[in-house]
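User: hey, got a sec? need Cell wall-associated NlpC family hydrolase folded
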Amino acid sequence: MNKRGIPYVWGGTSDRGYDCSGLMLRAYEKAGIDLPRTAREQYGAFSRKISWNDLEPGDLVFFSNLGHVGMISKPGYMVHAPHSGDVVKEEKLSDWRRQAFVGAVRPDPKGVRQWEKQLEQRREPISANLTATL
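Assistant: Yep! Here you go:
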């Protein structure tokens, strides 16, 4: 909440400016939880999803085809870095936000570790001994 008023900067992860996922990255870093960088990766880092009706402060909420993320600050409100030309702010969850809602997660260190393991497996080189069959 103390980041309110800092300008939105695409790709920003510091007090010079934040984008939506950069703000969440730094907030959870302060809590000792390392999140992936982008909103899509942050959503994918946790298998347990939270429904709109079960949102609690600290939950990450995702909108618009995983193109935006905010954090529930209190019931019915979120803090986020909205878009270029705006600043980090708290806003009421509107009907429009409800319609754009994709899902939510409740970050925990275990979930992030599982996500990192999946990413490492994807990066492993493919064996040169593979043979294609028809």
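Quick note: The chain is about 30% helix and 20% strand. Let me know if you need anything else on Cell wall-associated NlpC family hydrolase.
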